[in-house]
Amino acid sequence: MKLTTWLKLFVICLTLLSLIICISFFIGMNKDPNNAIDRPENNTQGTLGTIYKQYQGQIYASVPSNGVYKVDQADAQSFRSIADGFQNRQFAVDNKQVYCGNLILPKLDPAQTVSLGNGYISDGKHTFYCANMSEPNQTLGKGTQLYQQLLYAWDLAAKPQTYIYPSFELAPSAQPYRSMLERVIASNGQQTYFAGQLMPQANPNTLRALPKRYNDGDVRDSYVYFADGQHVYYQQHLLDLPDQSDLYSITVDNISQQNYLIAPKQGLAYVDHLAFDPQHGPYRLISTHGAHVLHGLFISQAGVYYYDTQTQRIQRAGDNPFAIGQWNEIAPLIFSNGQETLYVESSERWGSNKNPGLQSRSTHIYQLDESSTGHWQKIATVDHRFGEVWKKGEVFYYFDQLGPTQLIRQTLYRIADPTLVQQLISSEYHPNDIRKLIKSEQLAPVKKQKILTATSTYADASIVIKATLIIFAVLLLLFKLLHKFKLLPQTATDSKPAKFRNPLRASKQRNKP
Questions:
Q1: Domain residue spans in the chain?
Q2: Burial of 77: CB neighbours in 10 Å, binned 0-12, 13-18, 19+
Q3: Which residues pair with residue 381 across a beta bridge?
Q4: How far apart are CA 407 and CA 253, in angstroms?
Q5: pLDDT single digits (tens) 242-264
């Protein structure tokens, strides 16, 4: 077979494959049973154990982030939840099996299985943990997922299990397991587990949750940091840190998904189970307020450090601007030493139409660069604690506490008209009213000088778009090559006999020198 024939077949196959993939994804998205189950006119029976629904004699389980899944082996007649409560919403049994979401938990005897609380169940011989929130299925690769999605679209396979309720079996034990501390922790007196994962060397008799401090002065038990008198844990991870009475965890508003642990004696800090380098300590978090923060900033004499969520490493943002002098946080994220003013502000950078998507998130420290003199004086708090009005010399400022989530980008604004001060402190204002004042520049941007920036750079969101464009460009090039070498079928015009072709065009060609 000629090379040109192979080339032609390759182009045809590639085109067909692209069409099949596009059509398959369209079909797959529109055939999800969730579309029918949630329609009130279809008489779906009431929720069984929270995530389960019965529809047309079949049991379906809701798996957030990827719709609903049919529980294939479930017996609708005997299907029931194990126990009430949010922590047990993902469990169910019938007369044959025990289920975690839409998947079977093997070995368990459904007649003997009971809830231990906090995500644990047992039949007296075998004990399992099953999370009450779905997570991405780490065992399913991208290639496998694509292949399964194609098969599912054409009814050749079941819906890909892209999300699951993670489950783990605990080690067999002669002593029964019990849940403890009102957390996802269970122990048999010797072995202790967090979310089904072993906490090495943990003593269940002395295990306690460490205190968690909030910026409003409230203190509660942590959900992720624990200690037993000797060892310290983040979830199931054993930290290289001895237990001590003054350990505590903290949360930063707006980035509460990051957990921080402070060891004051050593001046150490942890984010989740990752330690800040002890060589650069002692560390101190500059503020727990987070309305204008996207990174927790820790300062030491060696610099300013933060956790980069994208590289998953501790990074240095720059020198410590608070190293010299006595600095006080006079208002959330605003600091003064009596002469200079520093404040924290965040920003996001988004791409253009050619390169769309989130590019980076940054947290900055700025120095106020205005001509106002004198000491800061607090005038009043704006209604609903949306912000505060302060005065420096003869100039009034608005200190914002709403943040970018309310479309207020800057921490500090100058009040352009002093008559606005009385309105701000005596009238009822809503976030939209604040935004209007900013748009009209009655709350004006201040002059500032950037001191340092902590940045997390995100992966290029346009990779898929670029890849698609490259594929189409390759296809176009192949078609042009085929046309150039006359490998494509001739059109009706090209195949006309000479006598039927345009005589004027032919005459012009003959008269060309």
A1: 3-169
A2: exposed
A3: 388
A4: 16
A5: 999 999 999 898 888 899 999 99
